[in-house]
Amino acid sequence: MDAFLEGLEVYCVGGAVRDARLGWPVTDRDWVVVGATPEAMRRRGFRPVGRDFPVFLHPETHEEYALARTERKAGHGYTGFVVHASPEVTLEEDLARRDLTINAMAEAPDGRLVDPYGGLADLEAHSLRHVSPAFVEDPLRVLRTARFLARYCGLGFTIAEETRALMSRLVADGELAHLVAERVWVETEKALGEPHPEAYFQALRACGALAVWWPELAADEAALDAALDRLPCLPEDDAELSLWRWARLVEHLDDDERARLGERLRLPKAYAALARQAALTRALWQAAEAGPLTAARVQAWLDGVDAWRRPERVPPLLALVSLEHAELATDLSLAWRLAGQVVPRALMEEGFKGKALGEALARRRQEAIAAALAGEAGESTA
């Protein structure tokens, strides 16, 4: 036993216990300490970090150790709780406050499983089931349950019918409106990084939650279904998976709809910016479906995504086009390369300056784009 923990009743809890039994990667561990006081933890060198309840960092591993606690609903939203942490709180009482049975298991240092609420049985049954009727005391659990579905539905997990009913009840009671935007976005961003993000939004639509925080998406079910189908089709690597999935999810919305959604969720600037670029790119390939693209239209797209100052934006957007129209992506790639060869320095050497320089730069770039489009068209005809 770790010397810092000697004499303490300590259990590994939550996600690490769950994922180890699923064969899912365990990235971090959370611990519950039963029968201890904050003073006793400090004397052992643990550093307090919890503001709402006693949580401590291990002096060496820096893993989190929380004192066993109970929670009592005292207001709206996910923060409306009175927390009680004391040496009298049992492990079973601590586990009872958790959202889903698969998250309400604990493991003793000797490997013994403590499972008072049937979490292991629900793991084996691939069921996401609430621990108790107290599920309805925290509206954030609606989003968390949907997020766990996005993670595990590929393993065959579904949300238990009685849990779905409680999710719908929370929505009907207006509890989701009391969540703060930052928490809604945290859960959504995590869900976008899960193996099946579409399941998150489908679950929220089924219980009515989508219409509360994402009404722009909920307004058109057919468009939403098409957007959810797009999520697996991405031009970037895993490092920006959530970012690109968000852009693909909202690219069909108009500027005002994306702005309202972004403001409501207090969207990070990077997400709002890429969503706008994806929308401009979508409009471009849709225009190509209606007829041949003009050089002016392509140049407007490049101007719109700020390609000349941020050239690194263009390759991934071209990859996005290639998912819909491979031939168009090839044409645009050539146009971008040729237009990019037109640089201000060369025009300045020709004597252009001031306003005339800007006009000449735009004109030469459009001519280069036109030549590229005409050349590709000629090669295609041949």
From TrEMBL:
<dbReference type="GO" id="GO:0001680">
    <property type="term" value="P:tRNA 3'-terminal CCA addition"/>
</dbReference>
<keyword id="KW-0692">RNA repair</keyword>
<dbReference type="Pfam" id="PF01743">
    <property type="entry name" value="PolyA_pol"/>
</dbReference>
<feature type="domain" description="tRNA nucleotidyltransferase/poly(A) polymerase RNA and SrmB- binding">
    <location>
        <begin position="156"/>
        <end position="219"/>
    </location>
</feature>
<dbReference type="GO" id="GO:0042245">
    <property type="term" value="P:RNA repair"/>
</dbReference>
<keyword id="KW-0067">ATP-binding</keyword>
<comment type="similarity">
    <text>Belongs to the tRNA nucleotidyltransferase/poly(A) polymerase family.</text>
</comment>
<keyword id="KW-0548">Nucleotidyltransferase</keyword>
<dbReference type="InterPro" id="IPR043519">
    <property type="entry name" value="NT_sf"/>
</dbReference>
<dbReference type="InterPro" id="IPR032828">
    <property type="entry name" value="PolyA_RNA-bd"/>
</dbReference>
<keyword id="KW-0808">Transferase</keyword>
<dbReference type="GO" id="GO:0005524">
    <property type="term" value="F:ATP binding"/>
</dbReference>
<dbReference type="InterPro" id="IPR012006">
    <property type="entry name" value="CCA_bact"/>
</dbReference>
<dbReference type="InterPro" id="IPR050124">
    <property type="entry name" value="tRNA_CCA-adding_enzyme"/>
</dbReference>
<keyword id="KW-0547">Nucleotide-binding</keyword>
<keyword id="KW-0479">Metal-binding</keyword>
<keyword id="KW-0460">Magnesium</keyword>
<dbReference type="GO" id="GO:0003723">
    <property type="term" value="F:RNA binding"/>
</dbReference>
<dbReference type="GO" id="GO:0004810">
    <property type="term" value="F:CCA tRNA nucleotidyltransferase activity"/>
</dbReference>
<keyword id="KW-0819">tRNA processing</keyword>
<dbReference type="InterPro" id="IPR002646">
    <property type="entry name" value="PolA_pol_head_dom"/>
</dbReference>
<dbReference type="GO" id="GO:0046872">
    <property type="term" value="F:metal ion binding"/>
</dbReference>
<protein>
    <submittedName>
        <fullName>Multifunctional CCA protein</fullName>
    </submittedName>
</protein>
<keyword id="KW-0694">RNA-binding</keyword>
<feature type="domain" description="Poly A polymerase head">
    <location>
        <begin position="10"/>
        <end position="129"/>
    </location>
</feature>
<dbReference type="Pfam" id="PF12627">
    <property type="entry name" value="PolyA_pol_RNAbd"/>
</dbReference>
